[in-house]
Specification:
65% helix, mainly alpha, two-stranded antiparallel sheet, 2 domains, 11 helices, binds zinc ion, 309 residues
Length: 309
């Protein structure tokens, strides 16, 4: 079926991208409304500043944002570039997953391939939504983690080449490891070093990617979080603006209206870890973790003074 590939290949890839941007457009609604406990379907999209309903031709993913230069047609209010970023990211994710799982050379497998494409998109879009919501509100909605975890379990056992039990181990290891960190943080600092949201994210990631992906996800997310804090500090020092990425523990307590029975303990700075977990899970999903284990093998072998095979 080489002809099918050459004839429809670029068209299908373009379709996969546009398909993703449409979901990205919906994801923007989810990211904005879910933390505010508003319906994600009613009413239709409207300007957050003036309330004017956004017409379909002003709601074309990416294109409308560029044409209107990120402003409302009615009142001229400026929209965050996040809207276009989310649409583009979802388009790229849909396209990348399509290329990875859909094999046009074997049409008899096409229904399952398309099933995998749709399923992986659900997981990927869930991670994108979690990243932006956690970054802004420091919460990880169960409305996102629970459906993606249920679907992950279905995929693991019902789809051909699903992870099966490996997915169950992945969820146990992922959630268990972070629960341990939460417990230790509680013992040492008498407060949450990490939220239950992070436990949900890593458990869900283990379910979808298997436990083998988790060491990479934990290490890569920690490094990227440190890097982001470093960049935010430098940016803050250079521009003199406050850091939006980090909060003090008092600010966090205030946000969640917690009783400060921890008073007397030194304040420290915290960052939402969820966005970085979600980012690293996406990286592991897109690029695999073989390179990570290859590197680890060499690091440990060199420590032991042995020769890598
Ligand atoms: Zn407006």
């Amino acid at each position: 079926m080489v002809e099918l590939q050459t004839a429809f290949g670029p068209t299908l890839l373009a379709f996969a991208f546009v398909w993703g941007t449409l979901w990205g457009s919906f994801l923007n609604v989810v990211i904005y409304r879910l933390p505010l406990e508003l319906s994600v379907v009613h009413p239709g999209s409207r300007c957050g500043a003036c309330g004017t309903p956004i017409r379909w031709y002003d709601n074309v993913p990416i294109v409308s944002f560029l044409l209107l230069r990120g402003r409302c047609r009615a009142c001229g209010a400026r929209y965050s570039p996040r809207y276009m970023l989310v649409e583009a990211a979802c388009g790229v994710l849909s396209l990348a997953i399509f290329r990875a799982v859909v094999d046009l050379g074997s049409p008899e497998d096409l229904p399952w391939d398309l099933g995998w494409w749709l399923a992986w998109q659900w997981f990927a879009y869930t991670l994108v939504a979690i990243a932006f919501i956690d970054l802004e509100h420091t919460i990880v909605p169960l409305e996102l983690t629970v459906p993606a975890s249920v679907l992950g379990a279905v995929v693991a056992f019902a789809f051909p080449n699903g992870l099966g039990l490996e997915a169950v181990y992945g969820m146990g290891v992922g959630a268990g490891f972070l629960l341990l960190i939460v417990g230790l943080g509680w013992l040492i600092f008498r407060r949450e070093a990490m939220g239950m949201g992070d436990v949900h994210i890593l458990g869900m990631t283990g379910l979808w990617l298997g436990w083998r992906a988790l060491p990479f996800v934990v290490l890569a997310s920690s490094l990227q979080a440190l890097l982001a804090v470093l960049i935010a500090r430098v940016y803050g020092a250079v521009t003199g603006r406050g850091q939006s990425l980090t909060m003090t523990t008092e600010q966090l307590d205030e946000r969640f209206d917690e009783v400060t029975e921890n008073a007397g303990l030194p304040s420290h700075t915290v960052i939402p870890y969820g966005p970085f977990l979600a980012l690293s899970a996406l990286e592991a999903m897109l690029f695999g973790t073989e390179a990570f284990w290859w590197l680890m093998d060499r690091v440990f072998l060199s420590l032991l003074g042995a020769q890598a095979p």
